[in-house]
Design goal:
Distance between the termini: 68 Å
Number of helices: 11
Number of domains: 3
Strand order of the largest sheet: 2-1-5-6-7-4-3
Number of strands: 20
CATH class of the largest domain: Alpha Beta
Largest sheet: 7 strands, antiparallel
Shape: elongated
CATH architecture of the largest domain: 2-Layer Sandwich
């Protein structure tokens, strides 16, 4: 029998599988199934959501046949199965349920699309089906050059060392995040990545991104929603392949249920990052059991992330988490932060008037009528702008912010550095005449290149 591990890519969900069952009376049923999960070398698990006929047939006649495709080569394999048992709790059920809930949350069907049970089957045989592909044409399909396994491993180890060095050498949080995301692109070819850090409201805030242009920083993901929120809540890495196909599949079911009046779906949650992403991988950044952030990667290639990629990046994630934790602690003042001198100061445009308005009911700041920032970063900005307006002051310290009770910073793990990074990037995007620049560790400067008007109101 063909070993199941050798066809592991068939179970990534890039191409939906087909399952065929038969009742005792001989009535067949064939349907598409969303998950075929590789349990071990002798077992697979099928997700059970809506397929009552499949479930009923298997309980009467415990045999089933599934066909799965290899997503790169399109090789087709047929598995003969015998039903073994169902699981509605435990690690297997939780893992399959989490994947389903990720897609359900994006299609507004959280609570409607839910895993009822994971049906575990014994695999009796695995057969490759051949004869439906034409032979390869050597002129159109020349042999691909192959590289030895040892060479590939050596390249990956060199990449691991290079990224680890960047984490170790970073002297502040902002440089660390920028270096890591750039290194993932340079060394491993991951062109789209972001780091999200938790706030005190149960959200994850995009603090650094790479490959998305100037936008995206400040976007929030609620804990437990979507791939990123689910990874943060479970504190376990997850990857989803064939995202586009999964979304189309569930949107079709959503539309059918809605048309039949069986469900009132919530609005769809847009996927963060690439609108046409085909593969996503998210890894929790943990120090012990404490979540310090999430590293999320995307690709337009459906098989960009496999089990080896997940394991390899999880090693990096542990180092990144320790780097974030180290860079986020302490108020020591010292020499200018590395990289700041080279960046220099941007040249301010011609003086103009910018109107900053604070809405006190939700601690939200607008600039010239356009949303800028909210919550603790908004309180920090208002403090800086008022101090500058009253006394012309431009230099401030992290320590004084931490000692200011009016800002509402948590006593432990206040993530002040990440809040300042977010504030700086939002200003660069929405109001480049007002900037925050580190001058040395633990101190920063407010640069104002325009006339600032401050207004306050109780509500919008």
């Amino acid at each position: 029998m063909i070993p199941l591990r050798s066809i592991a890519s068939c179970f990534e969900g890039v191409i939906p599988a087909m399952v065929a069952t038969c009742s005792l009376e001989g009535e067949p049923n064939i349907t598409e199934i969303s998950q075929v999960h590789l349990v071990d070398e002798r077992h697979v698990a099928l997700s059970h959501q809506f397929f009552n006929k499949t479930q009923r047939n298997v309980r009467e006649n415990p045999h089933a046949t599934i066909q799965v495709f290899a997503p790169v080569t399109y090789e087709l394999y047929q598995l003969q199965l015998r039903f073994d048992h169902s699981e509605s709790e435990g690690p297997l059920f939780e893992e399959m349920s989490a994947r389903l809930q990720v897609i359900a949350s994006h299609t507004g069907m959280l609570g409607v699309f839910k895993l009822r049970c994971a049906d575990v089957y014994e695999v009796l045989s695995v057969e490759q089906l051949t004869g439906f592909f034409l032979p390869a044409d050597p002129r159109l399909d020349p042999p691909q050059a192959t590289t030895g396994v040892l060479d590939a491993m050596a390249r990956e180890l060199r990449s691991l060392r290079a990224i680890s060095d960047r984490v170790n050498q970073a002297r502040c949080l902002e440089v660390l995040l920028e270096n890591v995301l750039q290194a993932l692109d340079d060394q491993l070819g991951f062109h789209h990545a972001m780091v999200l850090l938790p706030d005190d409201r149960g959200h994850l805030v995009t603090t650094a991104s790479h490959g998305y242009g100037s936008g995206g920083v400040g976007a929030e993901v609620p804990l437990g929603e979507g791939l990123i929120g689910t990874v943060a809540a479970r504190q376990r890495p997850m990857r989803v392949a064939g995202v586009g196909a999964e979304l189309r599949y569930w949107r079709t079911i959503r539309a059918e249920l809605q048309h039949a009046g069986k469900a009132q779906p919530a609005p769809e949650i847009p996927l963060p990052g690439l609108p046409d992403a085909q593969a996503q991988l998210a890894l929790p950044l943990l120090v012990g059991e404490r979540l310090v952030g999430v590293l999320a990667l995307e690709s337009r290639e459906a098989m960009a992330f496999d089990a080896w990629t997940e394991t390899f990046l999880n090693i990096l994630a542990n180092q990144i988490a320790l780097g974030i934790d180290r860079a986020s602690s302490g108020d020591e003042e010292g020499e200018p932060a590395p990289g700041q001198a080279e960046r220099g100061r941007t040249t301010a445009p011609a003086p103009r008037t910018r109107v900053f308005q604070l809405f006190r009911n939700d601690d939200c700041i607008f600039v010239d009528g356009e949303y800028l920032i909210r919550n603790i970063p908004a309180k920090i900005l208002w403090k800086l702008l008022r101090s500058h307006a009253q006394s012309g002051r431009t230099e401030f310290s992290n320590r004084e912010l931490r000692l200011d009770d009016s800002l509402g910073l948590p006593e432990l793990r206040d993530n002040l550095e990440s809040r300042l990074i977010l504030l700086r990037k939002r200003l660069e995007e929405k109001c480049p005449e007002v900037q925050i620049r580190p001058v040395r560790r633990g101190r920063f400067e407010l640069q104002v290149g325009c006339t600032v008007q401050l207004r306050e109101s109780d509500s919008a």
